[in-house]
Amino acid sequence: MSETVVVEPAQADSPPSLGQPIRGPRALDESWSRFWHLAYNIARSEFKLKFFGSALGYLWQVMRPLLLFGVLYVFFVVVFEVDNRAEGGAGHFYGAQLLGSIVLFTFFAEATSGSVRSVVDRENLVRKIQFPRLAIPASVVLLAGFNLALNLIVVMVFALIEGVHPMLSWLELPVILLLLTLLASGVAMLLSALFVRFRDISPIWEVVSQILFYSAPVILPAEAVRKKLEHGTLDHVLYHIYTLNPLVAIFQQFRHAMINDQTASAWGVMEKGGGIALLAPIGIVIGIFLLGFWVFNRQAPHIAEDL
Amino acid sequence: MAPTKQPTNDAEAPSLVVRDISKTFKIPEERSHTLKERALHPFRRSRDEEFQALKDISFSIPRGEFFGIVGRNGSGKSTLLKCLAGIYRTDRGQIWRNGRMSTFIELGVGFNPDLAAADNVALNGIMLGLSPREARARYDSVIEFAELEEFQELKLKNYSSGMSVRLAFSVAIQVDAEILLIDEVLAVGDAAFQQKCFDVFIRMRKEGRTIIFVTHDMGAVTRFCHRAMLLERGEMVELGEPAEVADRYLELAFGRDAGYDDYEVATPRMGNGAARVSEVWLGDDRAEKRTVAPQSEPLTLNVLVRFNEQVVDPEVSVTLLNEQRQPVVVATTAGEHEQMGAFESGELAVFSFSMHNMLSPGRYHPIVTITRRGEGLDVIDRFTRDMSFVVTGLSASGGMVEIPVQTAVDRWGVLHPEYAQPARGSE
Question: CB-CB: which of B1, B10, B96 is closest to A22?
């Protein structure tokens, strides 16, 4: 409150000579480089621990999505022969599509689930030093990003072995990853800020995360969902809601641009309007990011007291 | 004050200006930590109890001052430090700083036990405000100061606690901030390392850095601070000369008259109460309340005892505990004053224990026991109150005491007969 300041006449010209005001903790402060150094170095040391901490280090990091992939692959490709039953060439390289989507989802899950407890778990930092609070969830997203980079190498090697040819559309990868990172960061900020006050965010997010895994085009590509939902108005409404999930557009575009251009693209799966309809999921990504930042920013000054 | 565009270049500007800051904490009676509770009782206002930790504190610290903040537990001194550090947001008022600031509320923030020294130094340095390049550049001097050259490759979890403290302190002092906020970090490490820390603080003081130091240790306040401030229940009670502030603090904490009675009521004491230790002080002058005992000078500890009943031939003994709670000196009146006769009810007596101070530098707590030899050994009173004093001095060999030792060398040469024919035990 500034009433106390205004009362004093000398106040008008004194602040410049008094130096920098100390305003208390915030999500971000003036120094971007400090924010970045903190987030990067926390993530880096965590990564180092995982990498060198156990005998098989990196192998485990890659094995987790690979094992999940193995189970799903046997189930859907060997038992149900999904890739043969898909229309046209859309089913080609189903294995690489599946693995790629699993790796993307692993990134999203690590970034969001990992951030839920992040601020509370780093209580020691929050209560003992002043730093831009946002560095904590940012470091979690960054760590998930390091893992994603390594896992993507495995995906591309797998795809090339399966017979995928390099395509010009591979250049779309940065845009796809940018959107996914924006979404994951927004959710990460939201969850980590809310968890300080509401501890049941953790089990809720576990369930939501599961729902997202099965509803996004990881196992079932968007075309398969569309085929199921093409009778009647209710189906159309349901499908419309389905396409609002930004993960649908992001994963589908990954499959289309990176693995098999016969599968539907992000705009191809939209109900109608194609590219323009894509503005809805993109808008949701940006909206979640801004909401996450707003909530985190509001919470940031009080985190040290609310813990 | 000359109006300058760049305040940091203004040599006249104080390092820190605090104007009317207040801080209130909400203590929810029942904390609704889950959404269900919120959903079930949407209209129930959480009946928060408010606790005002700081009330309208104003002060300003000129450049180069060593400023002490003292107060009892819960007086708000740590809250004030956290507000200054920017960890808590104040409800009202402003704080301005002039110059780079660094906070040592805890040593080794961000240390990870599974990483080696180099990673931890970098991480901790960055937390304290260094850039990664600065942190790397300071690594060698950090390790050197911490005397950990041989243990660089070791993971931190394999360090002894003393070693990690040394590493953490070394990082902390490498952060060349102009303003340092320090919260009782001196209360760590062994005596030799503490002495080293004191030396660093004296050096920083000489370099003209501004240091704000929160402590319980009145010895440190009187020795280092230019000025000190006493907080009590969130309010500033006194601001001025360290010695005066230390006096007021001791009065508040261990109050001589009224405060003392409060203490007796509040804390159950051992013994049958036939006599009570009412005060323990250092040196000749009771009012002076010395808390510092320089090495290799006479040291006298006086114990004022009030007898509540008639006691015949009491024995008063003092045990000096060092920081590790090890008894270093045990002294008793038993030998010299075995038969003192009867002390009447209401009688006051001072028992003095004088010695040549050969203690190693550090903090000492006296424990006074009054006993009487009856059938067994009746404990009349056992005084363990939080009175302590600090022994200062340069002689810190690492031993528990600094006893003068004469050394001699007798060079036997190479073919000394006694060496050539070693004495054998008779068989």
Answer: B96
Query: Could you say which of B250, B281, B311 is where a domain stops?
Result: B250
Three-state SS for B215?
strand
Q: Are residues B81 and B134 in the same domain?
A: yes
Residues B181 and B289 placed together within one structural domain of the fold: no
Query: Are B230 and B293 part of one and the same domain?
Result: no
Question: CB-based contact (8 Å) between B85 and chain A?
Answer: yes
Distance (Å, rounded) from C-alpha A128 to C-alpha A52?
28
Give yes or no for a contact between B186 and B215, defined as CB atoms under 8 angstroms apart. Answer: yes
- Residues B148 and B216 occupy one common structural domain: yes
The structure tokens 């006479």 sit at: B298
Predicted structure pTM score? 0.71
Token reading at B360: 């190693």
Read off the pLDDT of each residue in B148-158 and give the average, rounded to a whole number. Answer: 87
Nearest to A200 among B20, B34, B128 (CB): B34
pLDDT of residue B427: 42
Q: Assign residue B280 the CATH number of its domain.
A: 2.70.50.60
Residue B42, Cβ density class (10 Å: 0-12 exposed, 13-18 middle, ≥19 buried)? exposed
In the structure encoding, which two tokens stand for residue B283, read together? 């040196």
- B124 burial level (CB within 10 Å; 0-12, 13-18, 19+): buried
pLDDT string in tens for chain A (307-residue length) = 333 333 333 444 444 567 888 888 888 877 888 899 999 999 998 888 877 766 676 777 778 888 888 888 888 777 777 665 555 666 678 888 889 999 999 999 999 999 999 999 988 888 888 889 999 999 999 999 999 998 999 899 989 998 888 889 999 999 999 999 999 999 999 999 999 988 899 999 999 999 999 989 988 888 888 888 888 888 888 888 898 999 999 999 999 999 988 888 888 888 776 678 888 899 999 999 999 999 999 999 888 887 7
B339 with B227, same domain: the answer is no
The total number of structural domains in chain B stands at: 2
Q: Rounded to an integer, what is the distance from CA A26 to the centroid of its chain?
A: 23
- The end-to-end CA distance of chain A, in Å, is 24
Same domain? For B225 and B142 the reply is yes
Is A37 in contact with B129 (Cβ distance < 8 A)? no
B62 and B185 belong to one structural domain: yes
Helix (H, G, I), strand (E, B), or coil: what is residue B145?
A: helix
Print the domain residue range for B211: 12-33+44-250
Closest approach of A191 to chain B, Cα-based (Å): 13
Name the residue among A72, A67, A63 with its Cα closest to residue A217: A72
Token pair recorded at residue B168: 């953490």
The residue among B220, B250, B280 that closes a domain is B250
In 3-state terms, what secondary structure has residue A114? helix
A129 touches chain B (CB under 8 A): yes
| DSSP H or E stretch at residue A43 | helix A32-53
| Closest Cα in chain B to A301 | B89
Confidence of residue B59 (pLDDT cuts 50, 70, 90): very high
Distances (CA, A) of B223 to A210, B201, B364: 62, 11, 16
Predicted complex: ipTM over 0.90 = no
B60 and B158 in one domain? Answer: yes
- Give the count of alpha carbons within 13 A of A265, CB side only: 10
**Does residue B422 lie in a domain region?**
no
Domain of B137: which CATH number? Answer: 3.40.50.300
Cα angle for residues A133, B137, B163 (degrees, 5° grid)? 75
Tell me A200's DSSP state. T
Q: Does residue B406 lie in a domain region? A: no
| Chain B closest-CA separation from residue A42 CA (Å) | 7
Grouping H, G, I as helix, E, B as strand and the rest as coil, residue A14 is coil
Residue B426 lies in a domain: no
